[in-house]
Write a structure and sequence with these properties.
heterodimer, A: mainly alpha, 3-stranded antiparallel β-sheet, 3 strands, Tetrahaem cytochrome domain-containing protein (chain A), electron transport (chain A), heme (chain A)
């Protein structure tokens, strides 16, 4: 049940040593609900300093981390704006909307984050949970990567998931808590996960695989070959009327690393996205409608690893002009091979 | 030594008693009891309108 607190936890966990009101304030002596809840702070860790009383080091780096600053949202879209529009965006859309998605300590360790008004309550009787990806990561990242990872969108689950791995096995706690650097976006993070951390190039299972890895090394991303099935394109939910709503593998030139073929994901921003805020996106065409993306449905063997012809003959998943969204960015053309 | 002992006793008296206070607070009277919480926070009534099922 949503807010029932486990009594045993209260007696044994040092977090409760100073009583509920140490974090939640309110009136612990109040007799009625209204009296007890007067002045109560529902989400104490929204103020990170509440946790910082004891966890000073983590809070200091977390304040600069992307899960807290959500800087990736802002920096990912701002090249589309004029200078004047950037100011409007920062003051209105970003601060009033995007920033509401920041994760507090409690969102990952106490209560599952509330997403689109759906509140599943405490993760486990108010225990301070070290990690439970299915009740934390899965809620905010449940639109795309998590269901891809677990196979909930169909197809086989990611090979790492099938072998008992979960989010934090690649995305370490250190990465989640930040390293003290205020990055512009997740791709800039110094110690971000990399396939090569575990999969050394020289350890390919067969000579054929070793040759394939050597030939494609810089020119093709790992996911371009090892993504198993279609992954969510944002058109499925966000592009509005006329959007084609189907998962797909899309291969094209990496907009952030020109010259590399990679998996692309259609992103939800269209020309009218910020119209209500009075932002026309004067420089909309500065960015494409696709970003490089690593789908989380990795397999060792796919139709691309089995048969060169999938790419070199049929160009099966390659982005084509006829597949581009209507009235999309002119920059999309640069992604076509 | 006497000062240290007195300080320790003072700290024990101050903080040692806190968990007991926390356990007895009115918060736990309700939040530690699933039956009470069910009456205080009834589950939302599902609408039987279009789309159900």
């Amino acid at each position: 049940m949503g807010y029932v607190v486990d009594k045993e936890t209260i007696e044994t966990d040092p977090h409760f040593e100073y009583g509920c009101s140490f974090c939640h304030e309110g009136d612990a002596d109040g007799v009625t609900k209204a009296e007890a809840h007067k002045g109560m702070v529902k989400r104490p860790s929204d103020n990170l300093d509440t946790c910082g009383v004891c966890h000073e080091g983590i809070v200091a780096t977390y304040k600069l981390s992307l899960h807290y600053t959500t800087a990736g949202f802002k920096n990912g879209v701002s090249p589309r704006f004029s200078q004047e529009e950037k100011t409007v965006f920062d003051e209105t859309v970003f601060e009033q909307s995007c920033r509401s998605c920041h994760a507090s300590c409690g969102d990952c360790h106490v209560q599952s984050p509330v997403v689109s008004g759906v509140n599943t309550g405490l993760m486990d009787g108010h225990k301070f949970v070290r990690k439970d990806e299915s009740k934390s990561c899965a809620l905010c990242h449940g639109g795309r990567v998590y269901p891809e990872f677990t196979g909930d969108y169909g197809g086989r689950p990611d090979v790492h998931y099938r072998n008992g791995m979960s989010c934090l096995d690649c995305h370490s706690a250190e990465q989640m808590h930040g390293d003290g650097v205020a990055y512009d976006g997740r791709r800039d993070v110094e110690n971000k996960p990399s396939c090569l951390e575990c999969h050394e190039k020289s350890l390919s299972a067969t000579q054929e695989a070793e040759e394939a890895h050597a030939i494609h090394e810089e020119a093709v991303s790992c996911s371009a070959c090892h993504t198993a099935t279609g992954y969510r394109q944002c058109s499925s939910c966000h592009l509005g009327e006329g959007a084609t709503s189907s998962p797909a593998i899309v291969l094209g030139d990496n907009p952030r690393k020109p010259g590399q073929l990679t998996t692309l994901r259609l992103i939800p921003t269209v020309r009218t996205t910020f119209e209500k805020a009075g932002i026309r996106q004067d420089n909309f065409d500065a960015l494409p409608n696709y970003w490089d993306s690593i789908p989380h449905n990795i397999q060792k063997r796919t139709d691309r690893t089995r048969d060169c012809n999938t790419c070199h003959g049929e160009s099966l998943y390659f982005l084509e002009e006829s597949k581009l969204p209507k009235d999309g960015s002119t920059k999309n053309l640069e992604l076509i091979r | 030594m006497k000062i240290k002992l007195l300080s320790a006793l003072a700290l024990l008296a101050l903080f040692g008693a806190v968990p007991a206070i926390a356990g007895e607070s009115s918060c736990i009277d309700c939040h530690g009891n699933a039956d009470i919480m069910k009456t205080l926070v009834p589950p939302p009534v599902a609408s039987s309108g279009e789309g159900e099922g």
